[in-house]
Amino acid sequence: MRWPGRENRVLEIRNLTCGYDKRFHLKDVNLAIGEGGFFGIIGPNGSGKTTLLRAMTRILKPESGEVLLRGKDIWHIDFIELARTISVVSQNVSTDDLNVGEFVLLSRIPHYRGLQFLETKHDEEIADNAMAMTDTLKFKDRSMSEISGGERQLVLIARALAQEPKYLLLDEPTSHLDITHQVRVLDLLKKLNRELSLTVIIVLHDLNLASEYCDRIALLSGGTIYKEGLPGEVLDYQTIENVYKTVVIVEKNPISLKPYVLLVSEDQRLRARKK
After folding, report:
1. Are the C-beta atoms of residues 225 and 29 closer than 8 Å to each other?
2. Where are the alpha helices (DSSP H) in the chain?
3. Can you give the pTM of this predicted structure?
4. Which of 34, 96, 126, 273 shows the greatest Cβ crowding within 10 Å of its Cβ?
């Protein structure tokens, strides 16, 4: 495992064990994520992807081990300081009856000063800029309940950007989206990663999206890190078959040369055995 040099580590997880009562636990997880990267977390359902993300963002407290942000335990960082540094795009966010502009402006609260209770013109400019970057400014005045799933995902990212974070963590932002919106969301994240030097840590369900967009990948299985490295190091057919318990073929994308995972149906497997 070739981890980034200590001086370049944004987030470091050391011997982390945590979970939910007796239902599920991460066990002795060690991971280091470098500055300015696009880091993917993948694994089967129930492998611990979201649990790990929650541990990274102080939603879930470790039973043992630690999560370090720039060398400092996140549980020893002031909550407001942490909110100004890390922004999270979760799967389930209650939007109530807010319009898009109001929803995005909520992310400015960590930047309020002293007795400030309302957003300033500066806050509004930052929110508008975040919506412009995500192409959501055009429905600023529309209700969150009126926009599509793909548009809503872009608004969630706009709200995260308006928080002015250095590190952006996302929990399966492409779930339930068609391929057009999946590519649109991930192209946007890649652009922000490249142009703003925004470190992106993303949980993905789709192995091919993870392969295509991520610089490095951590594959979880049963609450532990099964393998971590470049997409080409992690996404080989033997590893995928061992973890996901299904037969696959791994080829190279002819344009990007990244691994591309092809599923093999049971019918095809039976036919192959008869030949």
Report:
1. yes
2. 49-56, 79-83, 100-105, 121-133, 149-162, 179-195, 207-213, 231-234, 237-244, 266-274
3. 0.90
4. 126
